[in-house]
Design goal:
homotetramer; 343 residues; alpha/beta; Dihydrodipicolinate Reductase, domain 2; 2 domains; seven-stranded mixed beta sheet; 10 helices; 28% helix; cytoplasm (chains A, B, C, D)
């Protein structure tokens, strides 16, 4: 059994980790920390876990996370970088669901996240946890930077096009839409039911932290300079993410060839579903599951890739468990066979 | 023109007052106070008001509310009682949308609201603003206690039955359901979209402040001792309130007589719609309007009254404007002719 | 492996059976029938099942359901009674999720469902599939009448009180609220998003088919004549059911004794969670799971029982799988360990 | 008083016309037709209109629409073209909310709408009712083709850029999102609450009827050939439309100049609100009102225009009333001063 610790179990990625790990056959939940909720049974905060998770939150000062085999950080940015060095030194593997290790470039990190990076020496060692594009490195990793939710959809959607050199990398557009859980479990007026229900809006159009992460990764797949316009929007639904990606073809290719390209790319990916050409994937077809689905469309020389996922599963905690499975030599789908909840 | 001031314009009853008063033909919006938002144009906080309300919030210390003819308090409990005495002394009429003057009994107020009452001498003078049951007193009032949202539905639903001595006043049950805006515009986790969407629950079953208010008012209509079980629930919708009222008949009466009783009672009430016997009123049929609709059902000796309203209009700000109209000698429906928004 | 057939796989209880059975370790999905969708891959209709269910719908005329070990009817009322006799004769077990076999009294069935019963001889043999109250009979059953969703909550909530002779059985009130999926997957204006979102209403107050079913079952638990007022309402959420039950105590009992009574009653029930006295269960704490949660409240001599479940799982398909497990000698929770999806 | 007839009052644009016209000071509602609902009081179908609209639906065979001054067609495509010639001949003005007269080119109409056009001779005479771009022609019009909802946002957003020759007309992208009411009040599974709530998807990506309408209109504003990629999506909200428009600048211009261009263009437009540069307009800021709001963003040489409106008001019935006002010499905002419903 893998002994698992979770730092910061009171947010949505934390409770989602608990939902998934509670039924994972090879996992023993060992410690869940929260400074604020020390002593509170986890199931008192999340009644969905009553009878399934019997742990209580413990203060980070008391919990001995070095007894764990792996520790997930489901925390705000800045927490993992403070605690990861000691854990790694003690032989504990670390998976950070926040951004501390996503950007290889320290200056870019500090510019976008407005905090100094306290262990830049780990940036090189950290492995970016986008399984489908980085599986081998993940298997040997000790420190995982779990990808952002939006970047997961943008990378898996644009990758085959860029890798094949088919599109103008300098003119990519990603018009993305996220459910409200992406904003986290924080007491804020903007995400109250009465503010965000029955409403739709864009946000952060001037600049979003997921842009540098995505551009840096996409740049790995092409020699052209990547330029990306990324426009995030907020959808009145709890879970779900839909990215509408636009790329301009620079050479002639048929729809059938395009489709074949994507199908070949993801033939072995258990959690990427390439739907028939011209399909309209729905976010609900992934609700609660680790599947990401995508479909291709075409208008003249414009390729449109529609990508959907559950932002809390494949976009966060599910992907983190997928990484954990690989790091411990398990089948990457272990404990992730949930069928999406529809309706 | 009636010069109107609003204290506490940043909550939902505040912005709803602004929506209604911005198109009221006899009103001149004169001052809107908010300590925290001093100087901020109201329309910057509520973009729905862009081009319609040109005032900025002003600090309560700077705003001279004594220049107003009437001041609405759309504030938490405790604010109106602090400022009302000076305003009344200056000849300004006061309408409090909170609970400061709803309970005649000081001890009951202090028990339920956990704060001392600072001007108990005004309690006797305050007029309870439930127009359909108290119209004449409201016309002459200088200080209005605007009813709570739940109490409005419970009183208008039970009143004809109690007044006619038809039911067991000691066994009333009100199973009530409210949209989330009833919880106000406060940053709290429990009313986040991701917590209260796609969910339904009861709350405050052990005791809710609207119980003593309702019981005290209902007691005015009957000699029997009133006993009320009131169970509030939270519905994943922004606006709307549905009360399902149960009362046991103590004498024989036909459905036709029951229906006639209610129709006669509310024949002159422009904002109470007695629907045909056996109807199922929908909250959306009142969305954004000042109408309250009700319908009767019957099972043996049990009468069921279904009552719906928009909790922010007839349940709060619309009722307050209705009171204002009466206090200034206007038709009580002035500025309140909005048709409900359906769909 | 249990070979499973599903008749009527195009509705919500059908797709929910597929979601659950697709990951059930002892089940082999063998046939899914739909006259209208003959030949269509199931996953084309329900993209959540892509990669998980590879069957296509087959016409009932072609499918040989006698090869199955058990057949679920996820159909409108009237279908199971037409096909059950032949299946039973062929040694196939039958679980009907509709009402064909729920009422022992043929006349009552025909009065409420407006169709003649075509195999009344099976009514006596049919076992009512409310596991927690009927476990032993279910183990030996060949024909299961799976309970209605509302009746499940009302029975599990009222049962301990009636069995202990604590309450007035002649004055029970159930004020119940259901998510929209309870209305099924039928093209109807009333359940369009634009009609039922941001809205709340009662329906069927004059009489609902779940009343005779519930009264007949409750009558088994008490010698007093049962009288039940049942008021269903529609909540703008997809899944979830919340029943607020009112019963008047006829003898003195403390809150602690009441709580102990319920805890003892359901001590061995893996899918009934008796929450601490005074709790407010939320429907979302059961979303997608087979758990039913309940909590007790008290006002004088009135007991209020709050009950929540997912109407499609414990209220329908999950309960049916629970029955199947018992009928085939498996642990009743096999394949039903999904943790509720929160948020 | 303007005598108004409405053909097809049972859909969402019909009931929205009724909501607006019921409080329009210069309008007398005279006839509402529906073949299917002949004799039914309108308020029985739409309880929001109880006490406000006392008409009953009448069969089109019985209603004498020639007694009206103007007739609105809130019907499916094909109905207005059948009845308009006779009404126009009788001197009645006609406003069609469907597409019958939106496309000047008969062949294009027939290609996209799959029905023959029965009065092509009226196409030239029909005036496109987008008030802000066509005000003078509308004043003198006898037959109005009321614009589609999406085309209204796309035209008002792209127009100033195209007219000023600032952008590449051959590379326009419109990523648009609509509330579910845009799909109309039709019994269909895809728009059931349980299918479209808590979900997000694109639809009609391969080709949508609003593309030829928009392209034809945009082509009027530029000499360059217009090419438009239009991607519609469905948002789980009742009302509201958000268009995210992308256009590539072909000459140098500052953000301040861009902003000034839009502000100058719409300075006199009471219903177009140019928000400060970099704003994020929310659909709810227009809910129930006739306002369209837009804001500009910039990334390098890409201009992003965010446009919101209520699809049933400015996107349909409100715009039609705005046209009617102009056709009858009234102030264009008469009866359209509703403030948006927020929250």
């Amino acid at each position: 059994m893998i002994k698992v610790g979770i730092v910061g179990g009171t947010g949505y990625t934390g409770v989602e980790l608990l939902r998934l790990l509670a039924v994972h056959p090879d996992v023993q939940l060992t410690a869940i920390t929260s400074r604020k909720e020390d002593g509170l049974p986890v199931a008192d905060m999340f009644p969905s876990l009553r009878g399934r998770v019997n742990l209580a939150f413990s203060s980070p000062d008391k919990a001995d996370l070095t007894q764990c085999d792996v520790v997930f950080f489901a925390t705000p940015h800045g927490v993992a970088m403070a605690q990861a060095p000691a854990l790694l030194a003690a032989g504990v593997k670390v998976i950070d669901l926040a951004a501390d290790f996503r950007l290889k470039d320290q200056a870019t990190f500090e510019q976008w996240y407005k905090i100094p990076h306290t262990c830049p020496e780990l940036l090189e060692q950290a492995v970016y946890g986008l399984v489908e594009l980085n599986r081998d490195a993940i298997k040997g990793a000790k420190l995982i930077a779990n990808p952002g939710c939006y970047p997961t959809t943008m990378q898996l959607g644009f990758y085959p096009l860029l890798k094949a050199g088919l599109v103008d990398a300098g003119g990519l557009i990603a018009d993305c839409k996220s459910g409200v859980s992406g904003a986290g479990r924080k007491a804020e007026i903007a995400t109250l039911f009465s503010e965000s229900s029955d409403n739709f809006k864009a946000y952060g159009v001037a600049g979003h932290r997921h842009t540098p992460e995505t551009v840096a990764q996409l740049q790995n797949f092409t020699d052209q300079p990547v330029n990306l316009i990324f426009t995030p929007h907020l959808v009145p639904m709890i879970r779900g993410m839909h990215s509408t990606l636009y790329a301009r073809l620079t050479r002639d290719i048929s729809n059938e060839e395009l489709q074949a390209l994507f199908e070949a790319q993801y033939a072995d990916a258990a959690f990427v579903d390439v739907m028939p050409f011209g399909s309209h994937p729905e976010t609900r077809s992934t609700r609660g599951s680790n599947m990401l689905r995508l479909a291709l469309h075409r208008h003249g020389n414009m390729v449109i890739v529609l990508v959907v996922q559950d932002n809390l599963v494949k976009g966060a905690s599910g992907q983190a468990v997928q990484c954990m499975n690989l790091m411990f030599g398990l089948d990457e789908g272990k404990g992730l066979n949930q069928v999406a909840l529809l309706p």
